[in-house]
Each structure stands twice: as C-alpha cells, then as structure tokens.
Specification:
The structure holds two protein chains of two kinds. By secondary structure, chain A is of the alpha+beta class. Chain A has four helices and twelve strands; from the N terminus they run αβββββαββββββαβα. In chain A, strand 10 and strand 11 form a beta hairpin. Chain B has three helices and six strands, in the order αβββββαβα. The chains are: A alpha+beta, B alpha+beta.
C-alpha cells in the first residue's frame, strides 16, 4: 500500500518542507498547512529518493525500506539543486531523476509493479494506474480489455478532469492475419 | 517500392523531446490541447501524459445531466479506416511492425465543465484535420 501526501504549490509550503528538511538531520517531516498531523520519515527508513516531472510541477517520491511510497508534488524545477544537496549531506542519498516518456505514442508494454499497472513506451514509463482504484474490468472484445475507475466527486476534484475508463488492445497469438482479412 | 523508399516515407513523430517543452497548465489536471506540438495532454493519476494527434483515431463527446464525457479513441491494429487514412496509418505508424506491443485503445474523461469539453472537442477535430492534410501532402510529395 502506498501512503500519499499532497503538497499544494504555494511558495510558503515549499519553504516549509525545505526548512523542515534542513532542520531534521534525523529524517524528513512535513506539516500540512491546515490542521492535520505531521508526517515524518526517519532517516533509517529512507531507501530511495526520486525526482520527476508530473502534472503539478515536480514530484519528490520517497521510497521507504518497507517499499511504501510517499509523494510530494508541486515543487518548482529549481528546488532540485537544494534538495539534492540536503539529501546528500544529511542522508547520504542521491536524488535520482526519473524521466517519463514524452513521445506521445499509444503503444508499448504493460508491467505490474506492486499494486500499480505501468505502461511503458520505448522502455520508459508513460503512466501508471493504481489498481486499487479500478472498480471493474471487462473483456470488451477478443483483444480488448477495459478498466473502469472509481471517481472521487469531491468539490476539489470537480475542477479537474477525471479518467473514468481505459481500454487496452492486447494482441493475441495468431490474430494478425485474421485482422488483415477483416479489413479487406 | 524498395526498403529505402519506405524509410523515407516513414517519419517518426514525437510529442516532446524534453520536459521543459510541456506547458505549465498541466498543473490544473485538465485535458489540454497543444496545437503547436500536435498533441493532447491527458491527466492520468498525477501525470501529464502526452499523446500525439497522429495516434488518435477520433474523439467522441457525450453529455449527460451533470457531466460531459470525452472519449479518445486511438489507432490500434484490428480496426478499419477509410482508404486515404489507411495509407497514412500504415506508412507512418511503425508499431504495426511490432506484433507484441500493447496499445492504449481508448481513454474516457469526464468533466463538469460542458463548455470547456465542447471547445476541446472542436479543437482536437481541427488539429486532427490539419495533421491529416499535412500527412497526405507529405506522402503525395514522396510518391
């Protein structure tokens, strides 16, 4: 299971996490701006730190030793240098850069990773789907698989566009010739 | 036609080369149309995922009481096209040569903003037409 924490992209909050990181040699902590408890990860729980471009700016993903993930997004690009230094100095960990595919292709490979389904284009991840959010699956036709999602209808989410369904075409063995026939 | 001619005809398309080319508006987690790069950018679980219009077969729109749905249908094997499109698809889509690839065939999004989705629907259809015209011209030139 993955624990998620969202950081809103205000400069104050960025400063907060940055200062928090600076002050905590024993680990990382994040305090939500509204009420809520402080989220902390002890230094000896840290396994891997990655940095990637996501929809809301940049994302810091903390992989804990128990393989749980904590994600903070909304970072500005230039936070990378500071965070790299802090992590190197205090935790002796590199902030690894993870790049997603930007090719814009709709073909590739699927791969299961924990509870996620990853879609890779030219061996690079293009997107990932948390299978916990899938409400139903069906075989729409011989080579077509459909996944439907639970959509959160909260006020905040209403301003965003939500993915409700994805369909994959999964090639079967020995179907290509038949398809070519169909098209004639 | 020889192999080298085919190679000339086949043009690899790519939405973006580097992250800095992606528009900042992705932070709203909404469907975006990037005309300049012939791409749509779709919000899929915290990521902004580009799809080049060349991979799009068509888009359909449905309205119900509270929401509008946009369904993006992508080009995959096992579909039929019009003759002209067929040529373009066969010549420009390399993946048909990889029989083991999995394809994203369709993605459906919903929004409570019917007006914006109608606008996106119109924009994508225009962009698609523009792209097809360009492709057909290019193929005719190379014949």
């Amino acid at each position: 299971r993955s624990c998620r924490a969202k950081m809103v992209q205000t400069p104050e909050q960025y400063l907060f996490i940055y200062e928090a990181v600076m002050q905590m040699e024993g680990g990382l902590a994040w305090k939500p701006r509204e009420q809520g408890s402080v989220l902390s990860v002890l230094k000896n729980e840290l396994k891997k730190l990655t940095w990637s471009r996501v929809a809301r700016g940049y994302c810091l993903t903390i992989t804990k030793k128990d393989n749980n993930l904590i994600k903070f997004d909304g970072f500005q690009k230039d936070a990378f240098g500071n965070l790299t230094n802090v992590f190197k100095t205090y935790y002796d960990l590199n902030l690894e850069v993870k790049e997603y595919s930007l090719k814009g292709w709709n073909w590739g490979q699927t791969e299961f990773q924990g509870t996620n389904l990853n879609f890779l284009v030219s061996s690079k991840e293009s997107f990932q789907i948390p299978l916990n959010d899938v409400s139903s699956t069906s075989l729409a036709s011989k080579n077509e698989v459909s996944l439907e999602f639970n959509v959160n209808n909260s006020e905040k989410k209403k301003r965003e566009d939500s993915l409700v369904e994805i369909r994959f075409y999964v090639p079967g063995q020995a179907t290509r010739e038949e398809e070519d026939e169909d098209e004639k | 036609k020889s192999g080298s001619d085919e190679k000339q005809v086949f043009k690899k398309f790519e939405s973006y080369k580097k992250e800095s080319q992606i528009p900042n508006e992705t932070r709203d987690l909404r469907v975006l149309v990037d005309r300049r790069n012939f791409s749509v950018i779709l919000p899929i679980y915290d990521l902004a995922v580009p799809f080049h219009v060349s991979t799009l077969k068509n888009v359909s729109k449905t309205d119900d009481k509270d929401f509008t749905y946009l369904r993006f249908n992508f080009i995959t094997p096992g579909q039929s096209f019009g003759k002209k499109v067929e040529t373009v698809v066969r010549k420009s889509l390399n993946p048909f040569q990889d029989p083991n690839a999995t394809f994203v065939r369709a993605l459906t999004f919903k929004s409570s903003d019917a007006h914006r989705f109608a606008e996106i629907f119109r924009e994508i259809n225009e962009l698609k037409k523009e792209m097809q015209k360009k492709e057909v011209e290019r193929l005719e030139m190379s014949d």
